[in-house]
Write a structure and sequence with these properties.
The chain is of the alpha+beta class. It is 26% helix and 15% strand.
């Protein structure tokens, strides 16, 4: 459409423009309405404003905390199109969010037409055209997870409530044509509509009357378009809360037409929001009733717990002081976000039954060798306010997460002790734990289950509990001496009477008839000949049942060894190899039952055997030994300098490598340091189990002689058991393995991998039920006690041992 103006005699160009204005304005309004009706561009987000009416003080505080201080709505004085405006100044550039570079917030943004206007009037960034005018509309997407605010015309302007936003896959367009302008604008090409239902509402405004509408809230999958012209320069803009979207199908609510007279405009009502915005919506449920994964979001918290939920949201907005790890903090934010801040462990009266169960487990942490002070949570007093209840809720959550992490994977990173301490820990997932605690009928048992499930751990726990129980009078051991016959006098008589439960008479040293009878009864009970004569065998039997009072050092040793059980995988395997370094023993387990055991040689203090868990994958029969550079440098080179024939006598070849250096290799054979077979479980330390020609070392009690690998006393029997597990149905025997010995390497690959756990337990419970202790060969036990604050007890270090290498 085009318009031709014919000048009449006596009329000035200004007069012609004033008469042509109604027709040009109508054309411009019609073009803008048509373009925006077909447009599917998102509407501009509302500008800053105050919290909406009807929210609780807690909700307002939470929103203020999240969004920060909001500037007051500015007064518009020079943004209109009136012909009587003062001389136009250069318009400031509009920044993101509808605020110009001077800090003004009055610029309303609208969808940008697809076809570009002429170069002279093409809008610049921020709605400023090439001529410096500020009325050119621009488009901006409205993407905000929390309810936003939109400007509303003040007194003297017409206010139009916004239509609610349609649900997913819907498009709602609300078009408000601008007031008549001085120029005739040709219709622009409208953008293509999206593949969703589109609804448009066109609201013409009265001439020179500003009409504004609150910007609707965007929802996932929905597109809302709102177009509004700039307000007259004399209009004061006040912020208005935008409604939250609902998860319903597309809905279009026609907005009422603006009154013909501004003074008759009804005051705008604040739209009703679905619920208070919290800082957790970004991580949990999304606005519009949809969660982050697209599932329906939980309903907003109402009733007595609503203030507590708001307070939880506020405190999680700044979670730095909670004491949780980064991963745990993220899990807390996501967990409470999905719940709209709804508490789990407290209610409006205080700690609930679920929270009491968690507190009970935390208080009983000492049963598992943990420190209750690490999980202290102060219960809120009766009548506590929402902030105190929210703090207790989050403290309980963090304490539960910390307890589970300590119980399952230990209280510090084991590699801090030494680079040779590299066990496989399993750290619990905090998100899964919180979800479990929120639904489990027994939160106490759920937390307790994070402690190691292994029989060895439970046996140590039972010993720790026995030490904590009150004891009767300590029993005194009967010293050895000559035979004590009826009628003899002996200084051991008072101790003997006390041991057998007879009254002790001060100064009575006679081995009388009553004491003789008690000794005979005891001899008969332990299957000794009841002679009544106190000899060495009877004294040994009397002292066998005596347990010395537990010392603080023994309790610390038990706790430190319980801690190292937490470093192991919870599932050790249906079959597995258990190598305990301080015992110098290797055992093959089927579940908890030992089906084979053998003595081993472990690494020296200078070259310790590392702690690890890896799968055995294959074995090598007739292995060659590629000597590590450290051994070649420290042992082979000095030997070669002292006796040039020494290496050849041991079957060691010196080979020049490609880098110009030398490597040492020992060929397979009887003299090979690896013996006839090695069992491989690839690891970062390059250690393995293997045979050895030095059989005499297995007769010693202390067997720390290797460079880190573990030498097996009976490798053929050991291999027989392993191969029948890893190669089921092949009927391996020690004789079959022995027939493979020769001069060529042969590989046996296991079909089923067998876990190998190289561990370090200095204190454990033997099959007999007796508490056993071994020397702290590498000083690891002492280091664990030190890191746990248990080093006040006496350290049981082996002769010449020093703390593990850092």
């Amino acid at each position: 459409m085009s318009v031709t103006a014919i000048r009449q005699p006596g009329r000035t160009p200004a007069m012609e423009r004033r008469h042509a204005r109604p027709l040009g304005a109508s054309v411009a309004a019609l073009a803008l309405a048509l373009a925006l009706a077909l447009s599917w561009l998102p509407a501009a987000a509302a500008g800053p404003g105050e919290p909406p009416q009807g929210l609780s003080p807690a909700a307002a505080s939470a929103r203020a905390l999240l969004n920060g201080p909001r500037p007051a709505a500015p007064v518009t004085t020079n943004a209109g199109m009136g012909t009587a405006d003062p001389p136009r100044r250069a318009a400031p550039v509009v920044a993101a969010g509808g605020v110009d570079s001077a800090g003004n917030g009055e610029h309303i943004v609208a969808p940008r037409p697809a076809a570009a206007p002429p170069a002279a009037t093409r809008p610049a960034a921020g709605g400023i055209d090439a001529a410096g005018n500020g009325e050119a509309p621009v488009a901006r997407a409205a993407t905000a997870p929390a309810p936003q605010t939109a400007p509303v015309a003040a007194t003297g302007a017409t206010s139009t409530p916004a239509a609610p936003v349609a649900g997913p896959a819907a498009t709602t367009a609300t078009t408000l044509p601008a007031a008549p302008r001085t120029a005739v604008t040709a219709p622009q090409a409208a953008p293509l509509a999206p593949p969703a239902a589109a609804a448009a509402t066109s609201i013409p405004s009265a001439p020179h009357t500003a009409t504004t509408a609150p910007a609707p809230q965007a929802t996932p999958g929905a597109t809302a378009v709102t177009s509004a012209p700039a307000a007259p320069r004399t209009t004061t803009v006040a912020p208005q809360a935008a409604p939250l979207a609902t998860p319903t199908a597309a809905a279009t609510t026609p907005a009422p037409a603006a009154p013909a007279r501004p003074e008759m405009a009804a005051p705008a009502r604040p739209p009703v929001a679905n619920g208070p915005a919290t800082p957790l919506q970004a991580s949990g449920a999304q606005p519009g009733g949809l969660a982050a994964d697209g599932a329906p979001a939980p309903a907003p918290v109402t009733g007595p717990l609503a203030p507590v939920a708001e307070a939880v949201a506020v405190q999680l907005a700044q979670p730095a002081g909670l004491g949780a790890t980064k991963k745990e903090t993220e899990a807390l934010v996501a967990f409470y976000g999905a719940r709209q801040g709804l508490p789990v462990f407290v209610d409006e009266r205080g700690v609930n039954a679920r929270g009491a169960a968690v507190l009970a487990r935390l208080a009983a942490a000492e049963e598992d060798g943990l420190e209750p002070a690490d999980y202290t949570v102060t219960k809120p007093p009766r009548g506590a306010d929402a902030a105190a209840l929210a703090q207790a809720e989050l403290r309980l959550s963090v304490a539960a997460l910390t307890y589970a992490r300590h119980a399952q994977s230990g209280r510090f990173e084991p590699s801090r002790i030494s680079d040779q301490v590299t066990p496989t820990r399993e750290i619990p997932d905090p998100a899964a734990l919180l979800a479990s605690l929120a639904q489990t009928p027994d939160a106490n048992a759920t937390l307790a289950a994070f402690n190691p499930p292994h029989a060895g751990y439970k046996a140590l726990k039972a010993k720790l509990a026995a030490m904590s129980q009150p004891k009767g009078p300590a029993q005194v051991a009967i010293p050895g001496g000559e035979l004590l016959k009826p009628g003899d006098s002996d200084p051991r008589v008072p101790a003997l009477r006390a041991r057998l439960g007879l009254p002790v008479a001060p100064g009575n040293l006679v081995y009388d008839a009553a004491l003789v009878t008690a000794v005979k009864a005891f001899q008969d009970s332990v299957r000794l000949k009841p002679t009544g004569v106190l000899g060495a065998a009877t004294v040994t039997a009397l002292n066998r049942g005596i347990q010395a009072a537990p010392s603080a050092d023994m309790k610390a040793d038990i706790i430190a060894n319980m801690e190292r059980w937490r470093w192991l995988p919870r599932d050790l395997g249906a079959h597995y190899v258990w190598v305990n370094i301080p015992e110098y023993m290797a055992r093959i387990h089927e579940g908890d039952a030992v089906i084979h055991e053998t003595r081993i040689v472990v690494g020296k203090k200078e070259t310790p055997t590392p702690l690890l868990s890896q799968d055995m994958r294959y074995a090598v029969v007739n292995p060659a030994w590629n000597i590590p550079p450290s051994i070649a440098r420290n042992e082979m080179m000095p030997l070669l300098r002292s006796d040039p024939s020494a290496l050849a006598a041991r079957g060691i070849e010196v080979v020049r490598n490609g880098s110009g250096g030398y490597t040492f290799r020992q060929s397979p054979g009887e003299r090979n340091a690896l013996g006839r077979i090695k069992f491989m479980f690839p690891n970062d330390h390059s250690v393995y189990l293997h045979d050895t020609p030095s059989k005499a070392l297995f007769a010693r009690e202390q067997r720390a002689f290797s460079h880190g690998c573990m030498r097996v006393q009976d490798p053929l029997e050991f291999g027989e058991v392993l191969f029948n597990i890893g190669l089921p149905g092949e009927n391996w025997t020690a004789q079959r393995i022995g027939k493979m010995f020769g001069g060529k390497e042969r590989y046996i690959t296991l079909k089923q991998r067998i876990p190998v756990h190289v561990v370090y337990f200095t204190t454990f419970v033997a099959d007999s039920g007796r508490l056993e202790s071994r020397d702290d060969l590498y000083g690891i036990n002492a280091e664990v006690k030190s890191r746990l604050g248990l080093d006040a007890a006496r350290r049981r270090l082996a002769e010449g041992a020093s703390p593990a290498r850092r």
